[in-house]
Each structure stands twice: as C-alpha cells, then as structure tokens.
Write a structure and sequence with these properties.
The chain is an alpha/beta fold. The chain has helices at about 1-15, 30-65, 85-95, 110-120, 140-150, 175-190, 205-215, 230-240, 255-265, 285, 300-310, 315-330, 330-335; strands spanning about 70, 100-105, 125, 160-165, 195-200, 225, 245, 270-275. β6, α8 (about 230-240) and β7 form a beta-alpha-beta unit. The longest helix is centred in the N-terminal third of the chain and has 36 residues, at about 30-65. Zinc ion (ZN) binds next to loops. Zinc ion binds near residues 74, 76, 104 and 163. Keywords: Hydrolase, Metal-binding. Belongs to the metallo-dependent hydrolases superfamily. TatD-type hydrolase family.
Length: about 350
C-alpha cells in the first residue's frame, strides 16, 4: 500500500526503523519493542485515515457547499413577449437553479397579473407605477396604488414598491409627472417601511436628490437601483443611502466598460443580479437569430461574467448575491425562509 510505504520511509527518516527488511537497529531490546509498538500504532492510524478520509472530505463538502441557488431581482414575467411560453420559462428558471424571481409591476393595470403570477409560481412581486407608464395614470390613481399596497402588506409574497423611478432617456415622457409619481411613491415606501425597486436611466442625480429630500438614509428601507449604469460617485451615493445595485445582461458585453468596471470594483455586499426579462438580453441572446426574449434562466450564465470580473467561483457569486438580495428585500428573505427546503 502506498500510504504504508510512505509511513515506513517517514519512520526511517526519523530513525525508528532501519533499512527495509533488516529489523530495528535500536541499541537495546526494550527500545526495539517500544519502537515496534509505536510503528504498529502509526500503521493502524494511517490505515484508518485512508479508510475514513473520503467520508470526512465528502461530509465537509456537504456542510460548506449548499447547492448553487440564484435570485433574479428583476424580471417582468407578466410581459406580453413571454405570453404562451410562461410555463416553460418558469420551468427553465427552476432547472437553471434560479430559486426566486422578483416580478415588479408597472401600473395598476398589471397589479393583479404580477400578484397572481407570483402566487402560481412561488415567486415574489412588487407594486408601483413605472416612470414610462405615468401617462397612463392620473393623480387620483395614487390612492388606488396606496390601497393595493396596504392590502398587499398581508401577503408574504409582496416584497417592495416597484418599479418606480425616473427615465430621462426616452423622449416624450412628461418630466413633471414622473417627478410627482416618484416623490409620492417614495413617501409610500416610507409609510410602509418598504424597499423600492428603482428604474434609473439618465436620472441618477435627480433620483438621489429625491431620496435625500425624503430623508432617506442608510437606516431607511433602501432598495435596489436596477440596471445601474452611472459614475462611481453616483453608485456610492446610492450605496450610502442603503441601496444595492442591480447588474444583468448589459455587463456581458465586452464594450460595456463602465458597467464592467462598476461590477468589478464596487463593494461585493452591494451587488445583486437581475435579468430584466424579457429586456436587456445578454450578449449571446442579442446575437441570436431570430432574436429571443431574455428570461430568468439566463441568470447563472450572466453571473459567470460577474464571477470572471471579480475572480470569484460561481458558488461564491451565488452565495454573495443571494445574501445581498435577501438583505435588500427582507420580506423576500422571510418568504424564502418559510418555504420547505
Ligand atoms: Zn424593469
């Protein structure tokens, strides 16, 4: 046995045994007996270790490596692009190890759809008016939103106010209306101590000013700045107010230098993953012909980019981003903890 030979050689090296097959060279008989017993014990220990070693290693692996599970913190699973394929989309996400998906609403008209989709699939949802949908609501609809949120507080699958925010990129959107809805919904989040899911497009500083105006601080409920793209200073502004930043398909494009730099440099405790399905396709889907909608099942592959940028294993990426999503969305953590494993 290889192990036995090494042990003999080790003993020889420290002078307990002589050359192979020639017996002990100890000066007296008693010393030789002692050395012989010592060697036998050492052989037994060695044999036992060889036998139980693999068992110990596999037990240690079971303790320290939970199965890789991902959280997609932003996916519009109710979107028309996924109609007809929703069952397959959900099944593929499960097979890919996506444990939970956050489904944000965009207007009161889809509150019911996101709630029912979450209930049917075991995922979670948020309620809010998206900045690109403010022309479809009037100010009196705010009370509708407020009542829906108040009722949803009894629903363990309701986790945040969202998707809200500001979009100064898409032409033709009413800026004043966006600002009014943003402020009102931040107030709503404060009222119910809920985190917010923020849409951030060419609006980072105005969003930050709105949060500060509302007295948002790192002690408030925070949230997620989704699909974040901005300067390091702006990123630090959100982080200082208790936010996590969402990274997804955009990070997979080698030319997305700013997003990739942020993903590699920001504190690891502030990163969460998202797909924004069916939008923001990763590089490999953007090139596909015919174009395919993005889905939560892409998340583990998108995460490979984050892992590569940071020198992480996939397991570490899953563990840290899952912990961050749970910290950003405490009701999501409570929902997951209540589920049978
Ligand atoms: Zn969105």
């Amino acid at each position: 046995m290889v192990g036995t030979r090494y042990l003999e050689e080790a003993c020889r090296a420290i002078g307990i045994v002589g050359q192979r097959g020639t017996g002990f060279r100890a000066a007296g008989h008693r010393e030789a007996q002692f050395a012989n017993k010592f060697t036998q014990s050492a052989f037994s220990i060695c044999r036992a270790l060889i036998r139980v070693g693999p068992l110990l290693v596999s037990a240690a692996l079971n303790i320290f490596s939970e199965p890789t599970a991902w959280i997609d913190t932003h996916a519009h699973l109710d979107a028309a692009e996924l109609a007809g394929a929703r069952g397959a989309v959900l099944a593929q996400a499960r097979e890919a190890g996506v444990r939970c998906v956050v489904i944000p609403a965009v207007e009161p008209g889809n509150f019911r759809a996101v709630r029912e989709l979450a209930r049917a699939s075991g995922h979670v949802y948020a309620l809010g008016v998206h900045p690109m949908y403010v022309d479809r609501v009037v100010e009196s609809d705010f009370e509708v939103v407020r009542m829906a949120v108040r009722e949803a507080m009894n629903d363990p699958q309701f986790v945040a106010i969202g998707e809200i925010g500001l979009d100064f990129f898409v032409p033709g959107l009413d800026r004043e209306r966006q600002l009014w809805w943003y402020d009102q919904q931040l107030r709503l989040a404060r009222e119910f101590a809920l985190p917010v899911l923020l849409h951030v497009r060419k609006s980072q500083d105005t969003l930050l000013a709105g949060l500060r105006r509302q007295g948002w601080s790192q002690f408030a409920s925070g949230g997620i700045a989704h699909a974040f793209n901005g300067s390091r200073q702006q990123a630090d502004g959100f982080i200082g107010l208790g936010f996590k930043l969402g990274f997804g398909g955009a990070m997979t494009f080698p030319r997305a230098l700013n997003i990739r730099r942020l993903a590699s440099e920001l504190p690891e405790t502030n990163l969460v993953l998202e797909t924004d399905a069916p939008d923001i396709p990763p590089e490999w889907l953007a090139r596909s012909q015919p174009p395919q909608p993005n889905t939560p099942a892409q998340l583990p592959r998108i995460a490979q980019t984050l892992a590569a940028l940071r020198g992480w294993t996939a397991e570490h990426a899953a563990r840290i981003t899952t912990a961050n999503a749970r910290a950003a969305l405490p009701r999501l953590a409570a929902w997951l903890d209540a589920q049978p494993t």
